[in-house]
Amino acid sequence: MILLNITYYGAMSWLPSYLTKTYLLSLGAAGGILAVNSVSQVIGSYFTGVILSKWFPGRQKAFILICSIISGSSILCLITIHNIVLALILVALIGMTTISAFTATFTWPQAILPQLIIGSSVGIINTGGTFGGFLAPMIIGALVQNAGGSFVVGFIFIAITIFVGGLSVFAVRVSKN
């Protein structure tokens, strides 16, 4: 969860600066793009439950990995293209797939852990996620500053973080009850 939230909060905290600098947008225009991102996250949150239940029952690991690959790849595409329409689509896709991976991870304990410890396990997972949200803006800020104001290194860090987060779910052992 910490790696997913580094990606989520890192992208959300630095996208406005990136968009305004790269595309010479006003803060209002960048805010409009981020509003589209928020709508895509609502859609992603809703459909994650539907998709997990219908096509991925008991296969959260695969779903989280797929979402992480799409999100990380979209982040890498975002920093290589210079087209505002494609950027808008990529920002929406990043938001949707990142929140889908987050939602699948956050709800996973209910499927794999005994009911007696679900509350404490969710608390631990949420603590890790919150810590990721705390670290992300500072790490990315330091990377951007050390790169002379270039956002490329910061967004590569975010992409690598979600790729590693997607792969890390395979370290979780699930007993076959």
TrEMBL record:
Record's keyword annotation contains rRNA-binding: no
GO cellular component annotations of the record: plasma membrane
Organism: Lactobacillus crispatus
GO molecular function, one term: transmembrane transporter activity
Similarity comment: Belongs to the major facilitator superfamily.
Keyword Metal-binding: no
InterPro entries registered for this protein in UniProt: MFS, MFS_dom, MFS_trans_sf, MFS_Transporter
Domain Major facilitator superfamily (MFS) profile: 1-177
Protein name per its UniProtKB record: Major facilitator superfamily (MFS) profile domain-containing protein
Membrane topology, record value: Multi-pass membrane protein
SUPFAM superfamilies: MFS general substrate transporter (SSF103473)
Regions that span the bilayer: 23-50, 62-81, 87-109, 116-144, 150-172
